[in-house]
Specification:
about 300 residues; mainly alpha; Tetracycline Repressor, domain 2; 13 helices
């Protein structure tokens, strides 16, 4: 009797285990950690001084949800197209599609469902927001198909994705964002993109071109020189924003946040060049306490300056 019971229960446990593994693979494929990048849609509400308006924040949350759906759809499409190359990568081989934890057909179907859901949420915000969200989705697909294979263009495509998020967020809440913040967004995105390229070059060494053909066009020396340029420009642009943007306090109190930005940039460079990190910005931020602390302190100080000292 015991043997018969075990024989009946065993397959059930195995099926449950497979379902759990599949659910885990789907969650990994969505790359929920990278949803932190979509927090940038709140820039319009925060720096437009609308953070205390419940209706505005509800709309901003809807915009965030829409971009989480669209960005996850983009990651799924990218994973399907890159499955073979990812299998040759020491880290990316663990991705759901590359490891065959989910099929390419399932990933494409899920991506289409997420696009539909994302655009449905976008429709509740307005036609202008839908247009920007659709442009972002189009850019994601074009990046996966073509732009990521073009040297330097791939970096600007990544930056454009961040800018579209800021534009969409400002449209959603009906505020005008300072041009300085768009400049800072572009530069910071280029900074993170270059850090990722450097980590890929260091990890793959001579096999970098085999993983992605445009990586053979980059060298560590070139990436370091470009990073130096972008770092200097980022710090200068942010510093100019703190005392020249129209919505910051006239007492120049926003300048007190500059040291935190400097520390954050320096810390990230240290993690990239000394510790060999940078391949996943969200993991670097969430995994390094000093960097996360600096980011939290910057948010708190910026909010204090903008909302209490304005």
């Amino acid at each position: 009797m015991a043997t018969q019971t075990e024989a009946a229960v065993g397959p059930q446990i195995e099926r449950r285990s497979r379902r759990r593994q599949r659910r885990g693979a789907v969650v990994r494929a969505l790359r929920s950690k990278q949803w932190t990048k979509n927090l940038i849609v709140f820039v319009g509400a925060v720096f437009g001084l609308r953070l205390t308006d419940p209706a505005v924040m509800f709309t901003a949350l809807a915009a965030f949800a829409a971009f989480c759906c669209l960005s996850s759809a983009g990651y799924l499409v990218n994973d399907v197209l890159d499955a073979e190359a990812d299998r040759q990568h020491p880290i990316k081989r663990g991705r759901a599609v590359a490891s065959r934890a989910i099929s390419a057909r399932f990933a494409v179907g899920l991506a289409l469902a997420l696009v539909g859901l994302g655009l449905l949420v976008a429709a509740t915000i307005g036609p202008a927001f839908i247009a920007v969200a659709a442009a972002y989705m189009g850019l994601s697909v074009l990046y996966s198909l073509l732009l990521k294979h073009l040297v330097l263009v791939d970096l600007f495509a990544i930056a454009a994705g961040f800018v579209l998020r800021v534009v969409a967020g400002s449209i959603a809440v009906g505020v005008r964002v300072s041009p300085w913040l768009y400049v800072c967004t572009i530069l910071m995105a280029l900074f993170l993109g270059l850090a990722k390229r450097r980590q890929e070059l260091a990890m793959l060494e001579g096999a970098a071109g085999g993983h992605r053909r445009n990586l053979s066009e980059y060298t560590v020396d070139l990436v370091d020189q470009l990073t130096n340029i972008v770092t200097s420009a980022t710090i200068m642009a942010y510093s100019l924003y703190t005392f020249s943007a129209p919505n910051v306090p006239r007492n120049d109190a926003m300048m007190t946040t500059i040291p935190l930005v400097l520390y954050g940039v320096f810390r990230y460079l240290y993690l990239v060049r000394v510790k060999g990190l940078g391949g996943s910005p969200e993991d670097v931020l969430l995994g390094d306490r000093p960097l996360l602390g600096a980011a939290a302190a910057w948010v708190a100080l910026s909010a204090t300056v903008l909302y209490l000292l304005h």
